[in-house]
């Protein structure tokens, strides 16, 4: 349909002109230039005159134009809510956003809560740089609640007690991963440290939820490679219902004691 080539504002203006009779048959290019781009004026005039010749009333044309405008508006809102997030070689013309940039932006704007889940995380300076913005945000905002759900891997064939592995992980987190004075709340999947290989599992989800309003679901772990060099793909959703649903999923697993706190 020719009208689909028009922008939402042009559709609205054209519909209003038809309803108020500022535009009426026979339609002429000279009278339509105030409402549509010059390059589309001939097509629009031809379409309007064609519809008029078929007995379609101006108010019905205007109604259709308003529906098209609303559909364009709804489509734009959906596009605004969903962004492709990418790590990897730069692609000319790509509409994606950089993983590292998006993560830092989410952390810097957090006001109430941050939920992080990751399978792997770096150590040392690499890790501290990845979490630096969030650590600083926690310092300036005492009300910010941060939960991190992390995978703890039992070394191959190790039969070391779970309590020892948890203590070692907590020490590593405090000294080699987190640089801030305020510490986030840490959780792990109890099944990841099971001695029985048939029961063993891992926490593999990679996602961030901020203020129960935004969600990043990604293939990228919290490693420098994943944020800067690997080929990683994800989506950033500006969707309250999804953000709340994700938090409820983790809360439910904590309530069922499948995910348990790590004392740090």
Helix residue percentage: 40-55%
Based on the structure given, which CATH architecture of the largest domain is correct?
2-Layer Sandwich
Helix-strand pattern, N to C?
Answer: HHHHEEHEHEHEEEHEHE
Gap from first CA to last CA: 63 Å
Shape: elongated
By CATH, the topology of the largest domain is Endonuclease, Chain A
The gist of it:
The chain is of the alpha/beta class and 264 residues long.
Account of the 3D structure:
- There is one protein chain.
- This protein is α/β, with parallel strands linked by helices and 264 residues long.
- 46% of the residues lie in helices and 17% in strands.
- It is built from nine helices and nine strands.
- It has helices at 8-19, 29-32, 38-53, 58-81, 99-109, 124-140, 162-177, 224-228, 240-255, and strands spanning 82-87, 97-98, 113-118, 145-150, 185-189, 207-210, 214-218, 232-238, 259-262.
- Strand 3, helix 6 and strand 4 (145-150) form a beta-alpha-beta unit.
- Helix 1 (8-19) runs antiparallel to helix 4 (58-81) and helix 5 runs parallel beside helix 6.
- The protein is elongated.
- The model has no long low-confidence stretch (mean pLDDT 93).
SSE arrangement:
Blueprint: H1 8-19, H2 29-32, H3 38-53, H4 58-81, E1 82-87, E2 97-98, H5 99-109, E3 113-118, H6 124-140, E4 145-150, H7 162-177, E5 185-189, E6 207-210, E7 214-218, H8 224-228, E8 232-238, H9 240-255, E9 259-262
Parallel strand pairs: 1-2, 3-4, 4-5
Antiparallel strand pairs: 1-8, 3-6, 5-9, 6-7, 7-8
